[in-house]
């Protein structure tokens, strides 16, 4: 078992707990009609993946996100008040309220965007990595995608090109066992997605995606390889999606027992136990929880109070060279 400083463990805990409380609050706000649109895909249950992956990255590394992307941005350092405002369509949001849940982007943080097109990021990530290579930086791109997305043509195109051109990409498949309502047994013939890496002659490994330290360590191995110019790798993180596919999903294709079973692998509860086993004081975790609760409340209040975009600004940010 590798040793971690206590403050590193608490930082990982804070990130996971922030994602959880952010998402639970968004869920409540969506149910209360405070968030325009109905396509809110929450990350509850998958917190350890984004947290472990982003903890292995530098500030100037890139991430390419998905439709289920709030956790990715929070883990990359996103401000939850600006994210909350974005979800509410407010001018103060990361994309001035024009992007919403599925298009949150912050180039300053190296986030190249959430994306409503399943598998789109698999084609974007090699581009970002090629740019780093041509510019002679050692920046790495982490590309998040789901088990469903791993059946898209872009999976083959992205991995093939990244492997052929030896690009610094870490492909992170978040295998939550479902593509919307379709269980993996009905959409995939392989039992291991990581094994597909052999088709590109790159490393592939399957890890427990509900164990944040396992995710961190696997990503560190992949990042190290990418940063020193040895090319891409594929990490398959098995995990669980606790909510429906999106917030208005009846989720009636899973039995109550199956949904209940998801929570048994809670990445946060498991990490709390690991922290205490590693000598962390339970009261330090309690303090983190209290601070996060206060921060999430503040973010919600900020988002609710800040102004709506003005109708006369409707057409801004549509044409290049216009009002940016
Ligand atoms: C190209 C494309 N096809 C279909 C959809 C509809 N759709 C949205 S999410 C989703 C399932 C994605 O499953 P997965 O990649 O496993 O991600 P998860 O939702 O499980 O996080 C589908 C089919 C879409 N948005 N884009
Ligand atoms: Mg899935």
Biggest sheet strand order reads 1-2-3-7-6
Cα-to-Cα separation, first versus last residue: 50 Å
CATH superfamily: Thiamin diphosphate (ThDP)-binding fold, Pyr/PP domains
Indicate the structural class: alpha/beta
Query: What's the architecture in CATH terms?
Result: 3-Layer(aba) Sandwich
Average predicted local confidence, pLDDT: 95
Q: Approximately what portion of the residues adopt beta-strand conformation?
A: 5-15%
**Percent in helix:** 40-55%
- What is the total domain count? 1
Query: What is the tally of beta strands?
Result: 7
The number of helical runs is 11
Cofactors and ligands present? thiamine diphosphate, magnesium ion
And the CATH topology? Rossmann fold
One letter per element, helices H and strands E, the order comes to HHEHHHEHEEEHEHEHHH
Question: Could you explain the architecture of this structure?
Answer:
The chain has a single domain, classed as Thiamin diphosphate (ThDP)-binding fold, Pyr/PP domains (Rossmann fold), CATH 3.40.50.970. Strands 1-2-3-7-6 form a five-stranded parallel β-sheet, sandwiched between helices. It has a two-stranded antiparallel ribbon with strand order 4-5. 43% of the residues lie in helices and 10% in strands. The protein has 324 residues and is of the alpha/beta class. The chain binds thiamine diphosphate and magnesium ion (MG). Thiamine diphosphate (TPP) binds at residues 67-68, 116-119, 146-149, 176, 178-180, 241, 245.
